[in-house]
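Shipment paperwork, digital attachment
Item: protein structure file
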Amino acid sequence: MSIQLEIVTPEQRIYSGSVDSVKVPGTEGSFGVLPRHVPMLAGVAVGAISFKEPGGGDQYASTSGGFVEVDGQSVTVLAETAELAGQIDVDRARAARQRAEDRLNRAHEEDVDRIRAEVSLSRALNRLKLAGGL
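Attachment content:
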Protein backbone atom coordinates (compact mmCIF):
# COMPACT_ATOMS: atom_id res chain seq x y z
CA MET A 1 0.00 0.00 0.00
CA SER A 2 1.30 3.46 -0.87
CA ILE A 3 0.35 7.10 -0.48
CA GLN A 4 0.43 9.86 -3.12
CA LEU A 5 2.99 12.62 -2.44
CA GLU A 6 2.92 16.05 -4.06
CA ILE A 7 5.55 18.70 -3.29
CA VAL A 8 4.73 22.02 -4.92
CA THR A 9 5.98 25.60 -4.74
CA PRO A 10 4.38 28.73 -6.17
CA GLU A 11 6.59 28.26 -9.25
CA GLN A 12 6.48 24.53 -9.96
CA ARG A 13 5.70 20.97 -8.98
CA ILE A 14 8.86 19.52 -7.42
CA TYR A 15 7.68 15.94 -6.98
CA SER A 16 4.60 13.85 -7.69
CA GLY A 17 4.43 10.11 -7.13
CA SER A 18 3.45 7.16 -4.98
CA VAL A 19 5.56 6.60 -1.88
CA ASP A 20 5.60 4.14 1.00
CA SER A 21 6.20 6.79 3.67
CA VAL A 22 6.96 10.48 4.16
CA LYS A 23 8.77 12.35 6.95
CA VAL A 24 8.13 16.08 7.21
CA PRO A 25 9.96 18.73 9.28
CA GLY A 26 6.92 20.21 11.04
CA THR A 27 7.00 23.51 12.88
CA GLU A 28 6.03 21.61 16.04
CA GLY A 29 8.48 18.79 15.34
CA SER A 30 9.12 16.24 12.61
CA PHE A 31 6.43 13.66 11.89
CA GLY A 32 5.96 10.64 9.68
CA VAL A 33 3.06 9.77 7.42
CA LEU A 34 2.02 6.30 6.29
CA PRO A 35 -0.99 5.24 4.18
CA ARG A 36 -4.34 5.75 5.97
CA HIS A 37 -2.85 8.46 8.22
CA VAL A 38 -5.45 10.53 10.02
CA PRO A 39 -6.29 13.77 8.13
CA MET A 40 -4.34 16.80 9.32
CA LEU A 41 -2.87 20.19 8.42
CA ALA A 42 0.49 21.34 9.76
CA GLY A 43 3.16 23.97 9.29
CA VAL A 44 6.42 22.95 7.61
CA ALA A 45 9.75 24.24 8.93
CA VAL A 46 13.10 24.69 7.22
CA GLY A 47 14.48 21.19 6.82
CA ALA A 48 14.46 18.00 4.81
CA ILE A 49 11.41 16.12 3.61
CA SER A 50 12.31 12.45 3.24
CA PHE A 51 10.26 9.85 1.43
CA LYS A 52 10.63 6.26 0.38
CA GLU A 53 9.57 5.24 -3.11
CA PRO A 54 8.19 1.68 -3.53
CA GLY A 55 11.09 -0.65 -4.26
CA GLY A 56 13.54 2.24 -4.06
CA GLY A 57 15.64 4.05 -1.57
CA ASP A 58 15.08 7.16 0.47
CA GLN A 59 14.73 10.43 -1.42
CA TYR A 60 15.15 13.91 0.06
CA ALA A 61 13.90 17.40 -0.69
CA SER A 62 15.04 20.62 0.94
CA THR A 63 12.27 22.98 2.03
CA SER A 64 12.22 26.47 3.49
CA GLY A 65 8.80 26.17 5.09
CA GLY A 66 5.16 26.13 4.15
CA PHE A 67 2.21 23.86 4.91
CA VAL A 68 1.33 20.19 4.56
CA GLU A 69 -2.08 18.58 4.14
CA VAL A 70 -2.59 14.87 4.84
CA ASP A 71 -5.88 13.19 3.96
CA GLY A 72 -5.11 9.49 4.45
CA GLN A 73 -4.56 8.81 0.75
CA SER A 74 -2.27 11.69 -0.12
CA VAL A 75 0.25 14.15 1.29
CA THR A 76 0.47 17.59 -0.28
CA VAL A 77 3.35 19.86 0.72
CA LEU A 78 2.81 23.50 -0.24
CA ALA A 79 6.33 24.87 0.18
CA GLU A 80 7.68 28.39 -0.05
CA THR A 81 10.69 26.86 -1.80
CA ALA A 82 11.75 23.25 -2.31
CA GLU A 83 14.43 21.37 -4.21
CA LEU A 84 15.13 17.68 -4.62
CA ALA A 85 18.53 16.87 -3.11
CA GLY A 86 20.04 15.92 -6.46
CA GLN A 87 19.02 19.24 -8.03
CA ILE A 88 20.55 21.57 -5.44
CA ASP A 89 23.14 23.96 -6.87
CA VAL A 90 25.96 23.61 -4.30
CA ASP A 91 27.86 26.70 -5.49
CA ARG A 92 24.72 28.83 -5.21
CA ALA A 93 24.00 27.43 -1.73
CA ARG A 94 27.58 28.15 -0.63
CA ALA A 95 27.29 31.72 -1.90
CA ALA A 96 24.00 32.16 0.02
CA ARG A 97 25.65 30.81 3.17
CA GLN A 98 28.56 33.25 2.77
CA ARG A 99 26.21 36.23 2.25
CA ALA A 100 24.20 35.29 5.35
CA GLU A 101 27.34 34.84 7.46
CA ASP A 102 28.69 38.18 6.26
CA ARG A 103 25.42 39.92 7.22
CA LEU A 104 25.48 38.31 10.65
CA ASN A 105 29.10 39.38 11.19
CA ARG A 106 28.12 42.98 10.38
CA ALA A 107 24.96 42.90 12.50
CA HIS A 108 26.53 44.78 15.41
CA GLU A 109 27.93 47.52 13.11
CA GLU A 110 25.04 48.14 10.73
CA ASP A 111 21.30 48.07 10.56
CA VAL A 112 21.05 44.37 9.64
CA ASP A 113 17.88 42.34 10.09
CA ARG A 114 19.46 39.62 12.23
CA ILE A 115 16.46 37.27 12.15
CA ARG A 116 16.27 37.41 8.37
CA ALA A 117 20.00 36.69 8.11
CA GLU A 118 19.70 33.74 10.52
CA VAL A 119 16.82 32.26 8.50
CA SER A 120 18.83 32.70 5.28
CA LEU A 121 21.79 30.93 6.88
CA SER A 122 19.54 28.10 8.08
CA ARG A 123 18.12 27.58 4.57
CA ALA A 124 21.58 27.60 2.98
CA LEU A 125 22.98 25.12 5.51
CA ASN A 126 19.99 22.82 5.01
CA ARG A 127 20.50 22.82 1.23
CA LEU A 128 24.24 22.17 1.60
CA LYS A 129 23.64 19.32 4.02
CA LEU A 130 21.24 17.58 1.64
CA ALA A 131 23.49 18.14 -1.37
CA GLY A 132 26.56 16.83 0.47
CA GLY A 133 28.29 20.20 0.17
CA LEU A 134 29.09 20.76 3.85
